[in-house]
Each structure stands twice: as C-alpha cells, then as structure tokens.
Write a structure and sequence with these properties.
Helix 6 packs across helix 7. The chain has one domain: Alpha/Beta hydrolase fold, catalytic domain (Rossmann fold), CATH 3.40.50. Strand 3, helix 9 and strand 4 form a beta-alpha-beta unit. It has eleven helices and four strands; from the N terminus they run H-H-E-H-E-H-H-H-H-H-E-H-E-H-H. About 35% of the residues lie in helices and about 10% in strands. With about 270 residues, the chain is α/β, with parallel strands linked by helices.
C-alpha cells in the first residue's frame, strides 16, 4: 500500500465482513462469495469510486475476479497473487484427487477445524499456518492427525514474517475468530453463485511463486502454464518468481510491488 501510494495511487485495504475489525454476520454459515462481491461494490459506492484496480491474494483472487466479471464497469484491472481465476462451484478444487487429509477437505467439515484450532491459542494457529503454508508441499494430514499436528514447534517463523507481524495478525483473529474465515472461502467453495458469463475482459496480472504449494493442486500448474486460464481472462499476464512461495507478497515485497506498479502504470495510462 505504501509503495503504490508513493507512486500517486490511492491505496485502500479493508476487512471483509466476518474478518478482522469488521462486524460478524448473524448467520455466517449462509455466506458465499456473493457476499464478498457485494462488499467490494458497496465499499466503492460508499467512497464514491467509479472504477478501481482490484488486488487479491489467495482467496482474495475470487472476489477480485468475480467483481470484474459481474461488474466490469467498476474494474480497471485485476492483480492476483498465488491463485488464478477459479469459479466457485463443484469443480473449483478437486478434493477427490487428493488424500482425505487434504487441508481444504478437512476445513470444509463443519466443526473439525474449529476443534483442531481450539486446542491452541490464536497466535499459535496463525504461526502454524504461516509456517506450514510457506512450504512447497501441500498440507495433508494422516488419518490419525489434524492439520495443526503437521506443525513442528521447533520450526522457526519464515525469515520474512516477524514476531510483530504475527502479533498483529493474531490480534485481528482474536477479535474475529475463525468461524467466518472457514465458511468463506473453504465451505462455500463448492457453492455456484449463478454467474452466467464468467469471462473477465479487464487487463489482469497473475503473480505466482515457483515454490507455491498451490501449483501442486491437481491440474493447477497446467491450467496456468498452458494458458487455459486465458479462456476466462483473455488479457492476462502471468509472471512466475523463481524463489517465491505462497506468501510471495510478504516474502519478496519489493519485487511484487515493482510488478504491480508497472501493471498499474501501464493500464492507468491506457484507461486515461
């Protein structure tokens, strides 16, 4: 945010409903990605912004692309990190092609992740997730394990993620809890929200780390490298960062910032 603001852009970050400092919905178990689309458009309306670039990391890629598909007049361009355009629905993530202990499948079971996380304080859960998910292997538990059991307490935090970072993230989840975060994205991934024309015609940039575990999801690497993803996003540039992991924006912030600013400058000029 500081990097793009220093280049003259207005940078806005917000907590989606159910996250961080935002209010909790009364019935989070009914939430879908449609709610996040509504949040983005509602935010733009509340700030009297007609059109914006949307930048999304991981599951933030879903609403970024979905807003561009449903409300193309509001989106100047899309940048996503770690995840390409994937439509929510029954085929979004191929759980059946991975072992039963695949973390997405485990976290989709109501109550299971809550019980798993509940054995630890919030700070430990966030620490465990950052450590586990910065590896190049997909987190998969054995039959007699939970996902949090995969964490080795002797493993240090990644060098690019400080104790101060951890404390800030933990403080936000201590307020919000994990209830909504488990519903959206994990438990609503398979919910088709009824988008009849999913194509995104806005210019887009996908930044992936070569060591991102998501590339090992069934079909994911081929979907990106073969260009199949461009059937949904025709004006898409794809950049792989050799040393990048799933948290590429935190691991390599200067490089990620440079790529994003170059994209913004190019398409801001084109738009104007």
């Amino acid at each position: 945010m500081i990097a793009v603001a220093n280049k003259g852009y207005r940078a806005i970050a917000f907590d989606f409903r159910g996250y961080g400092l935002s209010d909790q919905p009364l019935e989070p178990e009914k939430a879908t990605f449609q709610d996040l689309i509504d949040d983005v458009v509602g935010l733009l309306d509340s700030l009297a912004i007609n059109k914006a670039f949307l930048v999304g990391k991981d599951f933030g890629a879903f609403p970024a692309y979905l807003v561009a598909a449903v409300h193309p007049e509001r989106v100047s361009g899309v940048v996503t990190l770690g995840i390409p355009y994937i439509l929510p629905g029954t085929n979004s993530i191929q759980n059946h092609l991975l072992p039963e202990g695949f973390y997405v499948a485990r976290w989709q079971i109501p109550g299971r992740a809550e019980a798993d996380f509940g054995r630890f304080d919030v700070k430990s859960v966030v620490r465990n997730i950052y450590t586990l998910f910065s590896r190049s292997e997909i987190p998969v538990a054995n039959e007699n394990q939970e996902i949090m059991d995969l964490f080795d307490p002797s493993t240090p935090l990644p060098s690019w993620f400080s104790e101060e970072d951890l404390s800030v993230y933990a403080s936000l989840y201590e307020k919000s809890g994990f209830r909504y975060a488990l519903q959206v994205p994990y438990r609503s991934l398979s919910v088709d929200i009824g988008i009849s024309d999913p194509k995104v015609n806005a210019p887009a940039l996908l930044i992936m780390g070569e060591k991102d575990y998501c590339l090992k999801f069934p079909g994911m690497e081929d979907y990106i490298r073969s260009g199949t993803v461009k059937q949904l996003v025709p004006d898409l540039d794809i950049i792989f960062l050799e040393e990048g992991c799933h948290f590429v924006h935190e691991q390599l912030p200067h490089l990620a910032n440079q790529l994003i600013i170059t994209f913004l400058d190019k398409h801001s000029t084109a738009a104007s």
